[in-house]
Amino acid sequence: MATxxxxxxxxxxxxxxxxxxxxDLKVNQGECVxxxxxxxxxxxTLLNVITGMLAADSGTLACRGRTLDxxxxxxxxxxxxxxxxxVFQDFSLWPHMTVSENVAFGLRMxxxxxxxxxxxxxxxxxxxxxxxxxxxxxDQLSGGQQQRVAIARALAVQPDLMLLDEPLSALDARLxxxxxxxxxxxxxxxxxxxxYVTHDQAEAFTLADQVAVMNRGRIEQCGTPxxxxxxxxxxxxAEFLGASNLMPYRRNGSSIVIDDGVLxxxxxxxxxxxxxxxxxxxxxxxxxxxxxxxxxDLVELPATCEQTNFxxxxxxxxxxxxxxxxxxxxxDGAVHRGGAVHVRFPASAMRxxxx
Amino acid sequence: xxxxxLRARLPLxxxxxxxxxxxxxxxxxxxxQSVFPDILGGSLDxxxxxYRRILETPELPAMIRTSLAWxxxxxxxxxxxxxxxxxxxxxxxxxxxxxxxLSLLVPIMTPxxxxxxxxxxxMQEGGFADGLIGGxxxxxxxxxxxxxxxxxxMALASFGYVALAVEATLGSLPRRxxxxxxxxxxxxxxxxxxxxxxxxxxxxxxxxxLVFLEAxxxxxxxxxxxxxxxxxxxxxxxxxxxxxxxxxxxLATSLSSLxxxxxxxxxYGSRWLARxxxxxxxxxxxxxxxxxxxxxxxxxxxxxxxxFLLSSVLPYVAMVLTSLVDSWAEAELTFTLRHYWALFEPxxxxxxxxxxxxxLSLAAATICVLVxxxxxxxxxxxxxxxxxxxxxxALLPRVxPKIVMAVALILAWNAPWVPVDLYNTVWMLLLAYVVIYITxxxxxxxASLQRMGENLEHAASMLGAGRATVFTRIVLPRLRPALLxxxxxxxxxxxxxxxASILLLPPGVDTTATFIFNQxxxxxxxxxxxxxxxxxxxxxxxxxxxxxxxxx
Lengths: 355, 552
Ligand SMILES: Nc1ncnc2c1ncn2[C@@H]1O[C@H](COP(=O)(O)OP(=O)(O)OP(=O)(O)O)[C@@H](O)[C@H]1O
Ligand SMILES: [Mg+2]
Description:
The complex is a heterodimer.
Chain A (H helix, E strand, L loop, with lengths): L2 E12 L2 E12 L3 E5 L6 H9 L6 E6 L2 E5 L4 E2 L7 E4 L11 H11 L4 H14 L15 H14 L4 E5 L7 H18 L2 E6 L2 H7 L2 E6 L2 E6 L1 H6 L4 H6 L3 E9 L2 E4 L4 E3 L9 E7 L4 E3 L9 E13 L4 E6 L5 E7 L7 E7 L4 E4 L1
Parallel strand pairs in A: 3-9, 3-10, 7-8, 8-9, 16-19
Antiparallel strand pairs in A: 1-2, 1-4, 4-5, 5-6, 10-11, 12-13, 12-15, 13-14, 15-21, 16-20, 17-18, 17-20, 18-19
Helix pairs in contact in A: 2-3, 2-4, 3-4
Chain B lengths: L1 H34 L13 H8 L2 H33 L5 H13 L2 H12 L4 H7 L3 H7 L2 H26 L2 H9 L4 H30 L2 H7 L7 H10 L5 H29 L16 H31 E3 L6 E2 L2 H7 L4 H33 L3 H15 L2 H13 L11 H26 L3 H8 L4 H29 L3 H6 L7 H10 L3 H27 L1
Antiparallel strand pairs in B: 1-2
The structure holds adenosine-5'-triphosphate and magnesium ion.
The site of adenosine-5'-triphosphate (ATP) has 12 residues of chain A, from helix 1.
């Protein structure tokens, strides 16, 4: 697949604080890359560097072989010449223009003639199901409708690259769910290349071809949602995505000792680093009051049930191992607080992360 | 039943009655007299005759047209001066913005008639310009004492409103709205045209309306400069119709009614236009600053500084110098405080005028604030048809030109059926000040009340507090900051008030403004300027003291 855009070692400082700390990112043609990370990790800053609103301090940014930013050589292409479009978190619709004037603006800047402009506006508004609201002003629309218009405005110009900065975060949970799927469909149908910023995991997994997990101005890991989830490379990625259990381990010759002897795994040592954290996802762990006929691959540890939470479709359970470590998993059958239970998971579900 | 209804509506009825007697009744008399010139004599003869006379006297329609054109010109020139100032302040990295902002406040705080008097001192034959520059070119003098010169003086006094309104709007316009346009490839010009200007239009229109109405109904500048420039303007004309003998009230009231009509049409017209042309609400956000180059900064300051020079430095220097100079012998100035001593000499007319103004302004500001605060409270916190009537009447002092209100008050309290002898006493003037200048108190209290919820008042009522207790113990203390600001504004405005004073003062009594006006017209220019200096100093001191106390 052709590389569409590439960042190499981008950095940006604000008043001595390093907000972007060497970003390397590759976006392929037609893909949606989701930047996922906690608040304040620099996602918006990276997006603003890509749009050209901010100039990078060092590193390079290239798009389809054209260098857009290269401070070392004094290159900074102005934002208006990049041909990207953006959906803002706060919509940022022009309040004095109607819906169709808002959507038509980009086309007008490209000097598209009036009939073609009108046709395209109608087409895009229909795509986001806002055709009936053409002549309204933004302040006569609900939040969700405004966001649809903002998306239509960005789509109308058929941009090379579409940037979306937490476009759904100003909406309520229900609406977010609906629009999320719609956006995913739109991006697929139009085949647009997109960079999408969010701190919501579900949004990221629904929309992404590639997820780039960001932390403190760096990209910790980049990959498909499945890879990111199943093969997290760092503790941060593991903890940020989904609920999981982490136990320290160390290698002892060819075997691995987990949590100072809670568990010894013989013959597995070659796969892991000297010491680190052993990760088991919550959904891999089954907590039940009965022993199971233990299979080859199955690890089973005695524990005491601490608490159960009803989640709707099943119960989440917390149990303490004899050494006091708290493990979270799903309850299998009736489990009672204070009762003796068994914590069970397949050995293949363990991931070893170096420190 | 009726008693219960009346008891519940008592505050509303009280406010309605107050406003109806103070403002509604005089205006009704004014309109009635403009239509039936002899109605005060008890006869309905001569219906519409005054309006017919306006149409048949060729000078009058021309004068009305000139007045409208002049007010329009003042508005346009104020836009030309004010919009760039507002842009420079809100959207560029101009250094020293605090000073630039202050330089806009000075002309706003200066009464236009004082600026006009000072300009006469500068531009007249043998004035400062002749004395200091040595010979003002004749064409410049001719230009100044003409339509455009008078326009310039008035615009210099008003462009600050435009600048501040534009700055406020531009400053709160979120930069994302422009960024979004830039992303689509819009350049500076296109951003201006499609994004900034349309969003700015309401502020431009509203401030323009303010300037237009002020110019149309301003009395000082037309009376001082218009008469010297062969430029007859409506308010001055009304003034001369009433004060020259024999007074022509029929013509004066019909011209006043026309002036009111213009004011109303302008107000509703511009509201309608602003709604039509766009605007739209936006959430305030951080604006973007346009970097000015070295030359840009120079040009920006040259613009603002030039305006400051013309609007403030020049008139103030002329004013203070005139009040201090003893003689102009052969380019050698000798200074004296003589004029000030004359002003403060016990028993002198100047001191009397100053004391009258002080007393009147203190009383008027206090009454305005108390009554205005109460009316605003009742208005904001009630509903129903009576409230809508109250809302409508409370608008009157805001829209009706001051000179019209003054004329109306003369008629209303001079009418044969009025039992009390209010007219020709100082109390008449106090009433006029309150009716004309209650607007600020109403506005400030309204804004403040709308921001605070009703719950604190409900809480007190639930604990058994009566209406009076709620108002004095809960509402008034919370309104205090707003009312203090209103008091200050009203006080300063009354201290220099010209038009009502000159029309309503009993013979032999002066206020500061009429003293300045009369002394100047009689050739006692140095004394007039000494009084102007003292008045402005006094209001500035009051202002500064209040500001310091609020900080401290
Ligand atoms: N203009 C600025 N000046 C100074 N510091 C800034 C500026 N913009 C961002 N920062 C800082 O940079 C850091 C990253 O900001 P950024 O907006 O990129 O975070 P984010 O990942 O988008 O967070 P969020 O999810 O809350 O939007 C923050 O610590 C912020 O305080
Ligand atoms: Mg952000």
